[in-house]
Amino acid sequence: MKSTFGKNINISLFGESHGAAIGVVINGLAPGIALDLDLIRAQLNKRKPKGKISTARQEADEFEIVSGFFHGYTTGTPLCLMIRNQSQHSRDYEKTKNLMRPSHADYTAFEKYQGYQDYRGGGHFSGRITAPLVAAGAICLQILGSKGITIATHIARCQDISDEPFGTKPEEMFAAAEKLNQSYFPTISDEAERQMVARIEEAHRQGDSVGGILETMVLNLPAGIGEPFFGSIESILSQLLFSVPAVKGVEFGLGFGFADLLGSQANDPFRMENGKVVTATNHNGGINGGISNGMPIQIKTVIKPTPSIYQEQETIDYAAKENTVLAIHGRHDPAIIHRARVVVDSVVAIGLVDLFAERYGYLWMAE
Q1: Tell me, what's the pLDDT at 88?
Q2: Which of 71, 113, 152, 312 is the most exposed place for a label (fewest CB within 10 A)?
Q3: Which element (helix H / strand E) includes 346?
Q4: Which portions of the chain are predicted below pLDDT 50?
């Protein structure tokens, strides 16, 4: 099973949704990083479900670091972080274990692991496994933050409701990023938050769910990060973003919008501004040739509607090899886009730290 990512910093996830614990092993961290444990807790808190817009499953998500951390600093050896599960309702899945939930990994996991997989709550394929991923990402966000690099994500769209854009001026972007990184529900506009929350609550009342688009900005990233072809920023970050459950589309800069433009419209002219190289526009999302050009990195990520809904759906009984109807029980999210925000921030941070270490070496993390 390939639940591992990274060349220079290596992230390996373990655990299942209803198992005893979930966690992550991180190889490649430099020695001497003073970890901010409160930041890890704050990031995990952004992923937690809250109110009617999320699942009723409540996990404390208290973590313990069992190796690679001593007297407040990383040791340079593998860091293992573990989160114990405390709120499993495994009985919710017993009666329907042979019914393949539409748009879930139930059927594909059964085919891959020949029926030996832990099917409860999606097992290793559950969004629950993103908790240790967020913890690992929090460490990488701290490393990037110490270099003046900021990552922030907002819900650009929830179904057909749109948020305000980040803006184009540095002061506008940083102000938006600060607001978003202090918010549980990440919108730039308070009115957009009100409308989106109402839409999610309405979907919940109907036993349905909604999705949307997340927009991520990376600010203050210097030029020259990324490797040609298979190690490009787009290649690395796309791999990580598509590893997040429910992500079905990723674009950088204008993305698919380039299809409607001429080259004269799509190009970003270079110019000097206060002794610094900038581009007049940022259609390419801060990346040329797979390498950062010093402008903000812009990424959009599509999050599909949560597949677990309370309406009857057509499916199959895998054991009986016959068609049937499924009515899902248990605790499920009418939307995960607001909780997915911090997961997206985390994987982007992990990918960028890996790319920085490729260029400058792993000791760069603690400099």
Answers
A1: 56
A2: 71
A3: helix 337-360
A4: none
At 206-258, the pLDDT tens digits run 999 999 999 999 999 999 999 999 999 999 999 999 999 999 999 999 999 99
Helix (H) or strand (E) holding 276, with range, is strand 276-279
Long-range CB pairs of 37-42, under 8 A, 24+ apart, other chains included: 39/138, 39/141, 39/142, 40/135, 40/138, 40/139, 42/138
Contacts of 186-194 spanning 24+ positions with Cβ under 8 A: 186/153, 186/154, 186/155, 186/338, 186/341, 187/154, 187/155, 187/163, 188/154, 188/163, 188/164, 189/163, 189/164, 192/155, 192/161, 192/162, 192/163, 192/164
Reading the block at residue 55, the tokens are 């699942």
Six token digits for residue 75: 């040791």
Alpha-carbon separation of residue 103 from 75, 107, 305, 306, 329 (angstroms): 42, 9, 10, 9, 16
Long-range contacts of 67-76 (CB under 8 A, 24+ apart): 68/26, 68/29, 69/35, 72/34, 72/35, 73/31, 73/32, 73/33, 73/34, 73/35, 74/29, 74/30, 74/31, 74/32, 74/33, 74/35, 74/366, 75/31, 76/29, 76/30, 76/31, 76/32
Identify residue 275 by its one-letter amino acid code: G
- Stated as kind and residue range, the H or E segment containing 8 is none
What is the model's pLDDT at position 276?
A: 95
Q: How many residues does the chain have?
A: 367
Strand, helix or coil for residue 175: helix
For the stretch 235-248, pLDDT in tens is 999 999 999 999 99
Contact 17, 128 (CB under 8 A): yes
- At residue 94, the pLDDT reads 72
pLDDT computed for residue 327 by the predictor: 84
Cβ(272)–Cβ(328) below 8 Å: no
Paired with 291 in beta bridges are 288
Span 14-39, pLDDT tens digits: 999 899 999 999 999 999 999 999 99
Report pLDDT for 63.
97
Q: Are 187 and 155 in contact (CB under 8 A)?
A: yes
Tokens at 139, concatenated: 């460490």
pLDDT at 185: 97
CB 211 within 8 A of CB 305: yes
